[in-house]
Amino acid sequence: MRKSAAEPEKRSAAQAEGRCACGTVRFEIDVPAFWVWHDHSRATRRAAGSAYMTWVGTWRRRLRILEGDDAISRWEDEEAAATRSFCARCGTPLFLERLTSPKFIDVPRGLFATRTGREARYHIQLDQQADWTWAGGPLSPLKGYPGVMQERPGRKPKPRAGSQSGARLATDPFDL
Questions:
Q1: Nearest Cα to 110, choosing from 94, 132, 99?
Q2: 42 φ, ψ to 5°?
Q3: Contact 152, 137 (CB under 8 A)
Q4: Whole-model pTM?
Q5: Rounded to whole angstroms, how far apart are CA atoms 94 and 123?
Q6: What is the DSSP letter of 159?
Q7: Residues 52-95: pLDDT tens digits?
Q8: Residue 118 phi, psi (nearest 5)
């Protein structure tokens, strides 16, 4: 039986609200999210400006824009076969819509103030991981700078599997 347009949509008992940096775009998802993972791909690294992005994946129908729909700018990312959305005012990455998964939408985990019902337990595109990413080695406090930690000096770390060592094979300077 099909629902009529007048019937309210089915929602879960709990939601997690997220927003861009400036607060112009606000949205919510029903929790629990479907899954959460760390994306180490070059395309995401460039779009996020960081070593990797942690994504919350949810069914598209479980995401609602609460405010700022007119401030969402979209960009077709041909390399990733996806559409990336950003806040047109502050530039915050908002959504990733992959052509291979049209019923899902991915949202950066850092945009949520509360829990999403899932922990990040997966890593994708580790073969594209930046060789400058902190690998979880030991840290110690930096004397005179409260709250700042430093990697302990010592032996040079061994190259990670899949990383490029010695002569760089990359031709794109942004891959460094």
A1: 94
A2: -60, -45
A3: yes
A4: 0.77
A5: 20
A6: P
A7: 999 999 999 999 999 999 999 999 989 889 999 999 999 999 99
A8: -140, 150
Tokens of residue 173, six digits: 């300077």
The 8-class DSSP code of residue 49 comes to: T
Separation between Cα atoms, residue 104 and residue 81, nearest integer Å: 14
What residues does 78 pair with on adjacent strands?
none
CB-based burial, 84-116: b 16+ in 10 Å, e otherwise:
bbbbbeeebbbbbbeeeeeebbbbbbebbeeeb
Q: Which two tokens stand for residue 115?
A: 């829990």
Cβ 151 vs Cβ 139: under 8 Å: yes
> Tokens for 70?
């007119």
CA distance 153 to 9: 56
3-state SS class at 75: strand
Six-digit token string for 9:
């949509």
